[in-house]
């Protein structure tokens, strides 16, 4: 079926395309009878204005981009849902892009969204180092970064207090009598992972323990990474009796590795995750974890972004997570 154009409407209504544009965009003076006739023709022909043409005139596309490092990770869909609900309510369309944890792909996605003239960008847990990321942020008019603070002249930020959450997890393990605690730190280029390692080190240092760097193992942020990572930790420290994981997927992989090594959880090894994804409560045993309200994270990021579009300044908001105690580390 041929798309109805503004010229088709103008021909049928007997007016200029400029007059049609004034009516569609509700701008300028148009005689009430003429306006009524044009609206009737628009309805009869089923005309829908081109969003591309409108964006060239208004410099607004009513679209925003949201970039995530791994759409298969259950942490991110709830963020997307929170952002989407706010965008839908305010009349915006959300474009979601996945980067597969690859910094180069993340940079390319940011460039393509810039070319697509999105009104704003939400960037989740970016993997690029600051010297690469910051110039790209400058090219976007309005940006909010989730789970990483950046200079306010570049973007707003909505972050989880990962330092506090990691310290809370370690303190819980220490209070339950664990003496040899390891850390499955996630990818080394993750700012979230870096902060959680810092929290791990800070909590242990507060007890007077000497920090042993061999108790920290970087890993992929998924089940395989947790499985391989715990096996490596156990090779170096067979007496390991507690572990804090980068996220719940890593913790689930660690549970599998413990089972392979015939280590009873939590009797011989206590495991604490991060995020409280839905699978955490269904694990065997159910996973103790640090809960992050991901839906609220997405909502707040989108509300902040739309505020920037309306002229509000960039700011940083920090959300504090909570410990959820289950059977993997009672």
TrEMBL record:
Coiled coil: none annotated. GO terms for molecular function: DNA-binding transcription factor activity; transcription cis-regulatory region binding. InterPro entries: HTH_LacI, Lambda_DNA-bd_dom_sf, Peripla_BP/Lac1_sug-bd_dom, Peripla_BP_I. SMART domains: HTH_LACI. It comes from the Bacteria. Keywords: DNA-binding, Transcription, Transcription regulation. Pfam families: LacI, Peripla_BP_1. The keyword Transcription regulation applies. Residues 4-58 form the HTH lacI-type domain. This is LacI family transcriptional regulator. It comes from Deinococcus cellulosilyticus (strain DSM 18568 / NBRC 106333 / KACC 11606 / 5516J-15).
């Amino acid at each position: 079926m041929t798309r109805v154009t503004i010229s088709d409407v103008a021909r049928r209504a007997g007016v200029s395309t400029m007059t049609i544009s004034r009516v569609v965009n509700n701008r300028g003076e148009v005689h009430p009878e003429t306006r009524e006739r044009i609206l009737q023709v628009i309805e009869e022909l089923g005309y829908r204005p081109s969003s591309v043409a409108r964006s060239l005139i208004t410099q607004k596309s009513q679209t925003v981009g949201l970039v995530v490092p791994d759409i298969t990770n259950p942490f991110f869909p709830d963020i997307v849902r929170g952002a989407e609900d706010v965008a839908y309510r305010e009349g915006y369309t959300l474009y979601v892009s996945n980067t597969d944890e690859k910094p180069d792909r993340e940079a390319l996605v940011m460039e393509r969204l810039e070319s697509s003239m999105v009104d704003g960008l939400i960037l989740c847990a970016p993997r690029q180092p600051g010297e690469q990321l910051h110039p790209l942020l400058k090219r976007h008019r309005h940006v909010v970064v989730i789970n990483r603070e950046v200079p306010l002249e570049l973007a707003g930020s909505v972050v989880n207090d990962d330092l506090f959450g990691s310290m809370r997890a370690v303190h819980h393990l220490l209070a339950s009598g664990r003496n040899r605690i390891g850390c499955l730190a996630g990818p080394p280029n993750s700012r979230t992972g870096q902060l959680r390692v810092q929290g791990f080190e800070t909590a242990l240092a507060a007890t007077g323990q000497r920090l042993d760097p061999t108790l920290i193992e970087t890993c992929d942020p998924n089940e395989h990474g947790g499985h391989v990572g715990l096996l490596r930790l156990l090779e170096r420290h067979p007496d390991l009796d507690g572990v804090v994981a980068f996220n719940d997927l890593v913790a689930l992989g660690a549970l599998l590795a413990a089972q392979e090594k015939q280590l009873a959880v939590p009797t011989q090894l206590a495991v604490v995750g991060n995020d409280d994804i839905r699978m955490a409560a269904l694990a065997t045993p159910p996973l103790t974890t640090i809960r992050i309200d991901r839906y609220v994270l997405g909502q707040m990021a989108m509300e902040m972004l739309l505020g920037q579009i309306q002229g509000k300044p960039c700011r940083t908001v920090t959300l504090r997570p909570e410990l959820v105690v289950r059977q993997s580390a009672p």
